[in-house]
Fold:
Amino acid sequence: MSTPSLPPLDIAENAPSGTDVLVVALAEPGLRQVPDAIEKAFGKRFGLSVHEMATALGAQAKAGNTRTLPAADSGPRIVVVGIEAEEPTPEELRRAAGEGVRYAAGLAGEGTLSVAVAFGPTEPEQVQAVAEGALLGTYRYAPVTTDTAAAEALISSITVVADEPGDAARGAVATAQAVLIAREWVNIPPNLLYPASFADAVGALVKDTTVAVEVLDESALARDGYGGILAVGGGSARQPRLVRLSYQPRGSTFHLVLVGKGITFDSGGLNIKVGEGMYTMKCDMAGAAAVLAATYAIAELGLPITVTTYGALAENMPSDSAYRPSDVMTMYGGKTVENGNSDAEGRIVMADALARGCEDHPDLIIDVATLTGACVVALGDQTAGLMTNDDAAADRLLGAAEVAGEDLWRLPIPKESRSKLDSKVADLRSTGDRSGGALTAAAFLREFVTDGTPWAHLDIAGPAFTEGSASGYTSPGGTGFGVRTLIALARSLA
Structure:
């Protein structure tokens, strides 16, 4: 499996000569930044300013609105993309840059295009946001096909026009690369990405980095008592894996542990899903994709924070060896769990990994999972649920998400959620009743976190995957949600 490639990125005061497409932004007061040479060329050839032509062709200061203007003389074609706010946030700039570059790629035909993005960013975080959005907007999943043209890049280079680049290019490239890695893993068909091949892909990714990798196969999982991961993966001929990454830079004073749900395909097991609900279940490993890719980026950026990451990888299938409702599993660490529903498998593999992660004595442990449909019902498909045992952790994550431009909403874990998990035959049951399903799932996970350890749970079931059309910097399929927030969190903790 190859790593998605990014076009070369430069941040410069001017668009290079020979640029094929210039992307500019239209806000309420007018176009944010158009090079003087292009304005003069437009006036000379068309008798109109760039703004006048854009509005004549229907351009509006509205997110998602795009128009193409002809080139003046030998200059670039111009793509005008709408931004509603007079003073846009970094996320609004990120989305507009992605929209503009993705639209520009559609003009490539059979060739490739060099693109410059001139939005007039003035602050380092704005410059990085524009660069991230532009890079993310280039992504498209290459289908499994004999058509080689379908896999070819459409954008040959990107220049962000800005006066003070700072370290924005390095941060944007590392962040965008990690997001695209996570997207790619999610988008790979499940017969090609399964626990063993996923573990191999992670090992290949970090091979020449400062990140150490350990992979536990089914024999090692049995030896060490990972009863949850083994139970969930037991119904498949493709055996489960637990991937452990370790990044330990000098000067670190904070230890962050990340845990990701890596169900490479979820049929529901013996509680089998309906066919329509099963089709997109290759995305059920998006949590593992996010934490593993984010760890890679944190190391690439050299952030002085210790990170230990677990990807709990299994395929949930129905067979004569599948785990059953009412089975009792002995989890890592010895706690016993009665299985309430084999389609609630994510919390089972996560419980093993959380229990193991707490043995690393972290200052903060975070799990990320496409865990419950209930969270999608509560928050929609653009916002992830945040549940935690620590107010400081909640504040840190909400702040990081705001910086990253990803939407989190804190949900409670009421006391009554734990009582729903009482079992007559084990220490606890894996599921409760239909009400408050996302909260009950979080209450279950909390049982595997050592007392006194700050912990947060991100339920990304809604925003991890999109079946709709492309929008902003997001293409159909995996979104890479959570990667940017985790990188921003690591920055703040470092």
